[in-house]
Design brief:
Elements: E1 4-13, E2 16-21, E3 32-33, E4 36-38, H1 45-57, E5 60-62, E6 66-72, E7 80-87, E8 89-91, E9 101-106, H2 117-127
Parallel strand pairs: 1-7
Antiparallel strand pairs: 1-2, 1-4, 2-3, 2-9, 5-8, 6-7
């Protein structure tokens, strides 16, 4: 089964990263993640991220460099290929259009949130200072 391509944004502000909590009614309710979503046919992975951030947070983002890439398969689902990009600049104020909550979290405190399994290695590396998004 081919992997589903997913883009996620690491939005930064004053040493914090924006974390988003999934709503109660969907898959993985209450889990935290970074905003983003599935790439649609005909769009680049960067275009996907810009579209998803517009839809989920009502912002216009400048997608930066690729920070981390991983693959993960949840039980009963297709494998996903996740690409995490730095997003240091965006227009607008993030508002939740798709999440139960959004929160700016200091990098060192990210590990305290119950992140999705697919995001966990990135979260751990960020919290330990092994990866830095300046």
């Amino acid at each position: 089964m081919a992997a589903v391509e997913v883009a996620a944004g690491l939005l930064t502000r004053d040493g914090a990263i924006l974390a988003c909590q999934r709503p109660a009614g969907g898959r993985h309710p209450g889990k935290w993640e970074f905003p983003g979503g599935k790439r649609e046919p005909g769009e680049s992975i960067e275009e996907c991220l810009r579209r998803e951030l517009r839809e989920e947070l009502d912002i216009e983002a400048e997608v930066g460099e690729l920070v981390w890439r991983t693959e993960h398969a949840y039980p009963g689902g297709a494998p996903i290929a996740l690409s995490f990009f730095a997003v240091r600049r965006f227009r607008g104020v993030p508002v939740s259009r798709a999440f139960a909550a959004i929160r700016w979290v200091q990098v060192a405190a990210l590990g305290a949130l119950d992140f999705l399994e697919a995001d966990r290695e990135l979260v751990d590396r960020l919290a330990r200072g092994e990866l830095v998004i300046a």
